[in-house]
Specification:
The protein is an alpha/beta fold. The chain has 11 helices and 10 strands. The longest helix has 25 residues, at 2-26. The radius of gyration is 23 Å and the shape is globular. The N and C termini lie far apart (78 Å).
C-alpha cells in the first residue's frame, strides 16, 4: 500500500511539474488581439495589417487588429497596459506613444516603461527634408547657410505642437544653430500647398507622404533623417553627413502588458523576426516607407529608452508643449 501511495504521489509531482511546459506549448490557443492606438488607414494601422497575417501564421493563430484611437495614442496604449499578461493582448506602439508622449504629457494613465513588456522593434519610418523649388538651397549645407544669413526670417511647418515633425525640426535647429519660426498645421498634408508655393521654407515630412511631391517635381528633397542614406530613398544623402549624429525615425514596436512571461515574449519576438525577414512582407513595408527591423526584446527596450531620453532633452530645452 505504501508503495502504491508513493507511486501516486510521484505521478502527481511529475504531472504538476510538466504543467507549465504544457501550457507554454499550447500558447496560443485562441486569436491574439493587436491593439493599434491610431485610426484605421493610417501608417500604424497599415503596418499592423501588413504584419498580422504572416505573423499569425508563424504563431499558429490569428492576429485581430483592434483600432483604439484617441489622445495621441494614449487610449489604446492604456487598454493594452491594463490587459491581462496572458499573451492575448499586444500593442503596436510608436515613437509618439512611448518616446514623445511621456515627455509631453505628464498625466498619462500609465508608465511606458513600468507598465509594458517590450517584445520587438519591428520597423522605422524616416523623414525627408523638403524645401520649395524656389529655395536658393540645393543641399542641406546650403540651406543651413541660408538660414544662418536670415535669422528669424524663415519658417518651418509641422503637423502640430509636440509631434515628431516639430521635434525633428527643433533637433535640426539645435544642431545647425539656426533660428527658424514654427508654423503648426493640423497634419503635414495641409502644409504641403504652402510649402510648394513658398510660403513655408522647410518641412520634415515622412518619406511615403513627402517623396511623391518630389518625384512629381513639385518639391525639392535635400536629405533623409537616417544616420546613413536610406534604401527607401537611396538617391538622397543623410542629413547626418552635414550634422553628425542627426537622426529622427518614427519607430514601431510590439509591447505586451507588464509581467508577460518570458517564454511568451520570446515566442512572439521570434514570430515577428521571422515575419520581418519574409521578402514579401519587406517589400510591402518598403512601399509604405517603412524599413523593417529585427532584434531582441532587450535591444528594443534599450533603443526605446535612448530615443525617449533624446526627445525629452529636446522637449525640455526648446520648451515644447502639446498645446
Amino acid at each position: 500500500m505504501k508503495r502504491i501511495n508513493f507511486l501516486r504521489a510521484a505521478a502527481i509531482v511529475l504531472c504538476t511539474a510538466a504543467m507549465p511546459t504544457a501550457f507554454a506549448q499550447a500558447y496560443p490557443s485562441k486569436p491574439i488581439r493587436l491593439i493599434v492606438p491610431f485610426p484605421a488607414g493610417g501608417a500604424t494601422d497599415l503596418f499592423a495589417r501588413t504584419l498580422s497575417q504572416k505573423m499569425g501564421e508563424k504563431l499558429g493563430t490569428t492576429l485581430v487588429i483592434d483600432n483604439k484611437p484617441g489622445a495621441g495614442g494614449a487610449i489604446g496604449s492604456d487598454l493594452a497596459a491594463k490587459a491581462p499578461a496572458d499573451g492575448y493582448t499586444l500593442l503596436l506602439a510608436t515613437t509618439s506613444t512611448h518616446a514623445i508622449g511621456p515627455a509631453i504629457n505628464a498625466r498619462l494613465p500609465y508608465d511606458t516603461v513600468r507598465d509594458f513588456t517590450p517584445i520587438a522593434h519591428v520597423g522605422d519610418a524616416p523623414s525627408v527634408m523638403l524645401v520649395p523649388n524656389s529655395s536658393p538651397a540645393k543641399t542641406v549645407r546650403e540651406w543651413i547657410a541660408y538660414a544662418q544669413k536670415n535669422p528669424g526670417k524663415l519658417n518651418y511647418a509641422s503637423s502640430g505642437n509636440g509631434t515628431i515633425v516639430q521635434l525633428t525640426t527643433e533637433l535640426f535647429k539645435s544642431q545647425a544653430g539656426v533660428f527658424v519660426t514654427h508654423i503648426p498645421y493640423k497634419g503635414t498634408a495641409l502644409a504641403i500647398p504652402d510649402l510648394i508655393s513658398g510660403k513655408i521654407d522647410v518641412l520634415f515630412d515622412s518619406l511615403p507622404t513627402g517623396m511623391p511631391h518630389v518625384r512629381d517635381g513639385r518639391l525639392r528633397a535635400l536629405g533623409v533623417t537616417t544616420l546613413k542614406p536610406s534604401p527607401l530613398a537611396p538617391e538622397l544623402p543623410a542629413v547626418a553627413e552635414v550634422l553628425p549624429g542627426f537622426e529622427s525615425n518614427t519607430w514601431f514596436g510590439l509591447y505586451g502588458p507588464k509581467g508577460l512571461p518570458a517564454d511568451m515574449t520570446a515566442r512572439i519576438n521570434k514570430a515577428a523576426n521571422e515575419t520581418l525577414a519574409d521578402p514579401e512582407v519587406r517589400d510591402k513595408l518598403s512601399k509604405l516607407g517603412i524599413a523593417p527591423t529585427i532584434g531582441t526584446p532587450t535591444q528594443f527596450a534599450s533603443m526605446a529608452a535612448q530615443d525617449a531620453a533624446k526627445w525629452k532633452k529636446i522637449i525640455t530645452e526648446r520648451k515644447i508643449t502639446g498645446d
